[in-house]
Specification:
The chain contains eleven helices and no strands. The protein has 211 residues and is mainly α. It folds into two domains: 63 residues, Homeodomain-like (Arc Repressor Mutant, subunit A, Orthogonal Bundle); 140 residues, Tetracycline Repressor, domain 2 (Orthogonal Bundle). Helix 9 packs across helix 10. The longest helix is centred in the first third of the chain and has 31 residues. The protein starts with a helix and ends with a helix.
Length: 211
Amino acid sequence: MATDSGSGLRVSKKHETWRTLHACALDLVDTRGYDDVSVEEIAAAARVSKSTLFNYFDSKEALLFDPGPGDRERWQKLADERPDGEPMWASVREIIRANIAHNAATLTVQRRILDAAPHLAQSTKAAGERFQQFVQEWVDARVRPDRVDPLCSALLVNTAFAVLRTAYLQWRPGDDAQRFLGLLDSAFAEIEAGVLDLPRSRTGVASDERH
């Protein structure tokens, strides 16, 4: 029991160090700009050595955009909250939305950083791909493979994440997280209303958002 307690404390401390480094990096880069902040300055702000920093992150880009520790457990909790019998599309939509709402403050800062340093966009892919892979695995485990074509399962998840990416691209730097969530809701509503039947009148939720 004591060993388990000690191990848990070590993991908790590592997670806290990761979060501190991540927060310091976001704050410094958001305030001063990506090129004007060094790894050494981030380490100093977090009160750790440069070598300790590199035990957690491979690069300055990783400090800003790497997936966080405990993400998978949190995603699993979101997935576990979906009720039995809920349509799979609705479950995936709500898991995505809940994850965005949880990360709202961080995403807002990252959006400003990317606007100022667009060459960093490639560095954001790891977190998104990891989350999408989790959702795909969860969907595949939840549906009966003898009743659902794998093509349909993949299409559902890929479509949902295309909605997420589209909403993100429409989210302007400087807008708050509520704007992003509004765009996400509107984008899902458009898909559910049959956006592929265009042209149609601009009377939907998303159409109202654009005015």
